Amino acid sequence: MNNAIQMPPKPRINPALVTGLLPFIVVLAAWAMAPLISDIPAYKLPSPAKVWGTFQDMLLNGSLLSEVWASLQRLATGYILGNLIAIPVGLAIALNRAVAETLTPVLSFFQSIAGIAWVPLAIIWFGVGGGSVLFVIVNTIFFSSIYSTVIGVQSIPLVLYRAAQSHGASRWDVITTVVVPGALVQILVGLRTSMAYGWRALVAAEMIAGTNGIGYMTLEAVQWYQTEIVVLGMILIGVLWLTLDRLLFVPIERVTVRRWGLVS
């Protein structure tokens, strides 16, 4: 009888996690070493310790959370509004192939100029403040999502429509069993892409037309040579996007795509 005590298996380190973190560690090390091997003054490139201290101070006094919350609220509002309009309109357009082929170049045109290019007009129409920023976000998200939706429906083979109709499917059945599942992958790509475009448009619009938020905080710090706040703002923009992407879109894609049987 073997009475030897079996040790619990050692936890395995996820190789993907190590691979993902390694570039950030290299960048952080290079950032920390830069002032030591060059004559870059601190006001041009603050040290990681200085940025970390600024993060702690702003977190404790509540100013950082206030700016982050303002930006996230605008993003959520613009994202919901933009997609609530874009996806139904995109499906309606794409269901008529002639209309879709006519409007696709127009949608592509507006998608290419959506975002910061609208900020000057937004300021004229809505003034400096939240209204202009929200307009730019909705505009960016709308054109990104509607274009992806139309392309997704257009990519569905005609044979699938004919197969459904030959089995007596109604128009609503065709939409729910052919159109939505067939375009789902591209719609999800549009949802993810529009969030990324909307996030960048939000930050840019806050810098130019905002009165608060991460973009406004970052640009405001430039006037006082508070480079540590500028760098902190840049880091927050990247970290928040990675967090949103991993928490929202990765689980949604996994569950939704498998639900519709689009993966083997």
From TrEMBL:
Residues annotated as domain ABC transmembrane type-1: 68-248
Q: What does the entry list under GO cellular component?
A: plasma membrane
Query: Transmembrane stretches, by residue range?
Result: 16-37, 76-95, 107-128, 134-160, 172-191, 197-217, 229-249
In what way does this protein cross or attach to the membrane? Multi-pass membrane protein
According to its UniProt record, where is this protein located?
Cell membrane
- CDD domains according to UniProt: TM_PBP2
In terms of InterPro entries, this protein maps to: MetI-like, MetI-like_sf
Keywords, in A-Z order: Cell membrane, Membrane, Transmembrane, Transmembrane helix, Transport
- Gene Ontology terms describing biological process: transmembrane transport
State the family it belongs to. Answer: Belongs to the binding-protein-dependent transport system permease family.
Q: What is this protein identified as?
A: ABC transporter, permease protein
Query: What is the species listed in this Swiss-Prot or TrEMBL entry?
Result: Planktomarina temperata RCA23
